[in-house]
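User: Can you predict the 3D structure of Na+/H+ antiporter subunit D? Sequence below.
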Amino acid sequence: MSLSPDLIRTLAPLPVLIPMLAAATTLFVGRRPTIQRAVTLFALISVTAVSAMLLYLADRYGATSVQVGGWDTPIGITLVVDRLAALMLLVSSIVLLAVIVYAVGQGIRDGHENQPVSIFLPTYLALTAGVSNAFLASDLFNMFVGFEVLLAASFVLLTLGASADRVRAGVSYVMVSMVSSLIFLAGIGFAYAATGTLNLAQMSQRLDDIPTGTRMAIFGVLLVAFGIKAAVFPLSAWLPDSYPTAPAPVTAVFAGLLTKVGVYAIMRAHSLLFPQGELDDVLMVCGLLTMIIGILGAIAQSDVKRLLSFTLVSHIGYMIFGVALSTQSGLSGAVYYVAHHIIVQTTLFLVVGLIERQAGSSSLRRLGGLAAASPLLAIVFLIPALNLGGIPPFSGFIGKIALLQAGVAHPSFLSWTLVAGGTVTSLLTLYVVARVWTKAFWRARADAPEGDLADVSPSALIDESEEDIPFVDREDVGRMPVFMLAPTIGLVAVGLALTVFAGQMIGISDRAARDLQNRDVYITAVLGEGGGP
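Assistant: Sure. Here are the predicted structure tokens for Na+/H+ antiporter subunit D:
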């Protein structure tokens, strides 16, 4: 088969189909953890390879759609592979593969008395399928299904171990997510009532004939739903309390990836369905407040996981900034920054897992001397931390410069205010990561206020029920399993690759942004030439 759109149509369903079939298989072999792991790794490697091929083909041939189940457009389920969807698939599959290798290295295995880990891998694969489905969906209801698969799987992953803190955080997370889902479902109902379709391409044509007030109301409902999932202020208060309680691999994939599914949905809805820009000023204000309030929250934290959770919220503001500009340069910067942030944020949360393994805590009051104890761990933290802070020549600097240049070129007071806010946020982010470096890595542990204590004992690394034990009682200090360290270093390398190959990545981002700006590309891919309303 030649490299053509026909091959895209063949490959497009696989990022959803492979993990779902693998999830079913791992359930059947739940008592054979070695086979479970082999199936999971094979599935995620396959998804990564397929996603890489889809990105190459989409960048070469443009957007292509495939009908699932034999139903014609717009009635059936349509999957669309364009540059944005393919890029998100590839970046997410790389992260999902790295995190599962890390989880295996951390010792997640069948039969632990306090944690039903035999369901971890099937649930993780279901999460992968939900993420892929959300990126490929070409109708609102199918996107809703992808979000619901994410919700079901993420609740299980968030509460593994059933400790009080995890269940409490899981209940809070699910309640917020259910509210978001109900709002999303209401938005779907409003959109269908107004347009008579849920197909995004067909809906984009019909919304042009809808009165402005009705169109803004529909967009507002969808923005609230997606904003909760993306953790956009003022809908972000749930995140810092939900993510840090989960195991390190779960926290990493949640923080790095799941919020970006919400950002992707905002990008797609804004550019395809509501390009008129009536709510751009609202998005700009939300983006600015997300940046500033998020980073101020990070400054106030003494636990590294909570600190990173607040920086996660803060940097969502950069992406919303790019979307709200409604220009090709703004969207290009946002697309590049999403890819950068998925990689870097996931890496940092994996590093925190290594810090907890090394030092028995993630609290800055108890950490110190890590640079001397493990120079490799110090390097693995420092590179993505500087990247997050936007130090040149890293990808964080490149992404922020692209967004700030787009803001300067936008002739409005709000855009200039966002440029100032983005600059301040970048400087404060650098201050935050420098503070972690100074306290956790540079000073002696004896100088830490609670340096003689650790959070958990070796037996409680999975079930964090023991607290405040003497640090000297830990038996595994300095031991970082190779399968935890290797994927973390791999993601550091991917983050550096975004810098080394920034020209190629910016090229893909530019072309993806151009496609987003030109709705006819997407509409033609789904409905064909001359597809009518």
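Residues 393 and 499 are 7 Å apart (CA to CA). The radius of gyration is 22 Å.
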